[in-house]
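Thread: "does anyone have the structure for this chain?"

Original post by V.I.:
We have the sequence but no experimental structure in hand. Need at least a predicted one for the grant figures.
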Amino acid sequence: MSRKKQYLHLMDTILTKRSAGLSIREIADYISSSGLVDPDDGPDDRTVRRYINQFEALDDQVKLLDAPFAWSKCAEYGLPWDAAEYVVSLTRRWLQGKLFFFHDENMNLPVPTARHMRWAWRLHVVEPEMEDVDVWCISLQYSVRELTKIVFDEEQHFDDLDNALLYQPWRSHTQMSAYRLRMEHHNQGGKIELLMIRLLDVPGFSPEVKDAIGRSALMPALLDTILPKDYGVLPSAILKEIELALDQVAEG
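Reply from O.Q.:
Generated one for you, tokens below.
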């Protein structure tokens, strides 16, 4: 059975034309004649309708959680009010460019999504001594996988993250060995770079939301690099090594 062709890069165009009042047929014709795709390879009516239905199926709660975090909406996010102190502090450090050494306060960073901050709080509760940068990176993995599962209605694996919290492989070789043994029978989650590419093509998220989703991940490829799949070392340790190496180059 052949796989359905993907036209995710056209979803914003499809929704824009739909909101302008074009019919399904008119949208398909527009795409085929616009130069956006090969004239003989554009989406048919059924595909256009499927993508429109995919967006309309996103409920208000999904859209709420993937908008920029707002303190006044903590209750709506399902966050206890006593979580606000940590979440606001973490968000403030991010916006001030203090979370990652290669950021500064002049970078106009986006406010992170509520979904991301909800996972950050959960992780902080489990690992209260974990550095903020590690909380940020690991909670982002959780939030991106969760959103991918919801939007695309497909299975996402959390075993590697859940077991990392159980075994804490970054603390010792013994715990790392136990984690690796455990993961022989569990699935590894997908690379965040690939998940982000898919999510940023989903329509219905405003430019502000897409900015929050995309740029909160730093560069997705970098995030995959600083979060090794065996969790033998945390992002904070890798970033410190990178910063030290750059300082040595600058001094040399």
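V.I.: this helps a lot. The mean pLDDT is 81.
O.Q.: and The two ends are 59 Å apart (CA to CA).
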